[in-house]
Amino acid sequence: MKKKLLCMLMATAMTATLLAGCGGGSSAGTDSAAEPTTDNTAAADTAAADTAADDTAADDMAAADTTAAGGGKVGVAMPTKDLQRWNQDGSNMQAELEAAGYEVDLQYAANDIATQVSQIENMINSGCQLLVIASIDGDSLGTVLEQAKEKEIPVIAYDRLIMNSDAVSYYATFDNYMVGTKQGEYIRDQLDLDNAAGPFNIELVTGDPGDNNARYFFGGAMDVLQPYIDAGKLVVKSGQTDFETVATANWSTETAQARMDAIISANYADGTKLDAVLCSNDSTALGVENSLEANYTGDWPIITGQDCDIANVKNMIAGKQSMSIFKDTRTLASKVVEMVDAIMKGGEAPVNDTETYDNGKGVVPSYLCEPVFADVNNYKELLVDSGYYAESDLQ
């Protein structure tokens, strides 16, 4: 291209010289030689300017598109894939955030605290602008969240409150105390404790002691049931009533089953009737049900649960589990996306509770969704008709 332009300029210069030799003025020859050079330079400058302008416009359009679509990278840390509900939470969260235009880094930590800490560190260092964290142990993330705070990365604690850290910006969950009260009320109403003579035998099973939610679940239920225990209408034959004794590490089905095996052997092997078992979630309820199936010969007691896991809903249909708290993770995911969107756009996340959840460093502004319970009478409406499960999932 340069050679062609050089040839054109040389030819023009030769023509100008010839014209000058035939009597044309020297000024005319200078003008004729200068004009093509000036025109080509101007054209090149104009083309370069146009290209730069096009690039700038393209960049502006891309930026506008990103802003319009949401934009930005969000880290989502989930505790484990071992429980069905966390798989649903993670997939719902990712789908909702991506639909809103965000890039999502979703990680599961296999219930290993060190793994979760490492995953969060990677999220912080890989450019995540906001973190949504369902912690394994609410007391174990203080150090890594200091890194998030130093980089001004907001943190939403998801379903489990992160304790003893001032890096937690918001908390999104279902009303965990209400979960427990609904479980306690269900047992109260099914046994008709306000009218029946009793006494009724009950055993208590709650969740992981490192999960702050377990204390809310258990506390809500016991606030309903404790007066009947104090009055002697409910009897805990094992004598195991304090949180630390009835807690179940990692919400493990196997651990709950082993403990229930021991309780049945010591207290119910002689045919004594077991009337109710308070279970804070479905994985512990499943352990209790497995134990009863193998060791108990009486009628099935009232058994509570939470999360509406498929295996437990099948047991509900079969008459082995009485109820399960239904927390529609689609509802919670949608609310978290609203919170993320508000924060990423420089605003404040919507909350409806600014008093309840103190993590040891202060009250964390929270959004609480209301749970409901499913039992054999309404599970189709809540779980199948809503599209949460297909009917074939429960057969």
The ordered string of helix (H) and strand (E) elements is HHEHEHEHEEHEHEHHEHEHEHEEH
Assigned CATH class of the largest domain: Alpha Beta
The domain tally reads: 2
| Helix percentage | 40-55%
Strand-residue fraction?
Answer: 5-15%
Principal-axis shape: elongated
Name of the CATH homologous superfamily of the largest domain: Response regulator
The average pLDDT is: 86
Structure description:
- There is one protein chain.
- The protein has 395 residues and is of the alpha/beta class.
- It has two domains: 69-168 and 328-370, Rossmann fold; 176-326, Rossmann fold, CATH 3.40.50.2300.
- Helices cover 51% and strands 13% of the residues.
- It is built from 13 helices and twelve strands.
- The protein has helices spanning 2-21, 26-69, 84-99, 113-125, 142-150, 176-191, 212-230, 243-246, 253-267, 282-295, 310-317, 329-344, 379-384, and strands spanning 73-78, 103-108, 130-133, 155-158, 170-174, 200-205, 234-235, 276-279, 302-303, 323-326, 366-369, 372-375.
- The strands form three sheets. The chain has a six-stranded parallel β-sheet, sandwiched between helices. A four-stranded parallel β-sheet has the order 7-6-8-9, sandwiched between helices.
- Helix 7 (212-230) links the parallel strand 6 (200-205) and strand 7 (234-235).
- Helix 4 packs parallel to helix 5 and helix 6 (176-191) packs parallel to helix 7 (212-230).
- The model is unreliable at 1-69 (pLDDT under 50).
